[in-house]
Amino acid sequence: MIRGVLDFTALDVATANHKLPGSVCGIGLVRVRNGEIVDKRGGPVRPPQGLDQFDERLSEYHGVTAGIAANAPAWPEVAEWIASYAGTDMLVSHGTDWDIRMMRAAWDAEGMQWPRLRFLCTLTLARRALELPFYRMPFVADACGVTLDGRHRPLINARGAALVAVALAQRQGTDSLDALAESLEVRLGSLEPGRYVRCAKRPALGTASPKARASGAAGRQPLTAPGANPDADPEHPFYGKVVVFTGALQSRGRQEAWNDVSEVGGIPERDVTKRTNILVVGDLNPNTLAPGAVLSRKANRAVELRRAGQEIEVMAEDDFLEHL
Fold first, then answer.
1. Buried b (16+ CB within 10 A) or exposed e, 30-41
2. How far apart are CA 190 and CA 196, in angstroms?
């Protein structure tokens, strides 16, 4: 066990759907003191009014249904409880961009002011510290020697993020989250009333704007790659990355997905090649994406390219939406 100030609160947020930011329907919190889990709490949340449309696929994924949420505490009460539980702790989660964005939208929907907090993303840390084809929690946990208690649930994910953060700190030989972030060149995220700074790797100076290209055809649907967005955030996870899609997406059509990627500075392309950085796999139940899973031909090709030294990551649709 690391001796020092490795004290923090790990967090995970479940949402009723992917289309309405702020539809928080579940929360998990895990308290860590001196590198050890000392407490964990969580449960369902009643989403803000108007954001309570439940996607059955997501409910199956995280276990919170409309019926369960209807009898749960509302977001304002839960938000106060989170603030009381975490206190001045830094928050840790696996994909803080998603978790903080969902909570910000919930605060906005309820007319509440954003609180002041700092946070650190184990997904961002893992991408800096580990060489993996997949960075979903099951794969990162496996690489860190962390055993998860089951499938995707807020408390399970929060516990996983807590143990992964401790494992990465041990791996880096650091005794605090600040030192861990510094060692992996990751900028801490922060939130305060009216201002949000995402947790991200420190941007390189002089990053050039990507130029989107189009070639060939995808199936029977002609696709057009929009021009690069000159106002895209250079720190966005897709900025400058070549993104390829395979399989049908549940949330949007292929052209809309291409438009979304271009809007944030990414480069949508049709085929997996040595240029590809990210492959998004549709028609895939994210619960099945774990070590040992049977993958599609294109996904297996992406894994082979990764093993050959190419920087390429395979994402399920929910990963894509969270990063987007």
1. bbbeebeeeebe
2. 6
Q: How far apart are CA 170 and CA 151, in angstroms?
A: 25
At 243, give phi and psi (nearest 5°).
-115, 130
Report yes or no: 247 and 296 within 8 Å, Cβ to Cβ.
yes
pTM exceeds cut of 0.85: no
- Alpha-carbon distance 54 to 69, whole Å? 10
Residues 189 and 211 in one domain: no
Q: Please state, in angstroms and as integers, the Cα–Cα distance from residue 233 to each residue in 122, 265, 267, following that order.
A: 21, 7, 14
Domain of residue 228 covers 204-324
Shared domain check, 130 and 73? yes
- Residues 172-193 have pLDDT tens digits of 999 999 999 999 999 999 999 8
82-114 pLDDT per residue, tens:
999 999 999 999 988 889 989 999 999 999 999
The 10 Å Cβ neighbour count of residue 206 is: 5
Q: Using DSSP, state whether 283 is helix, strand or coil.
A: coil
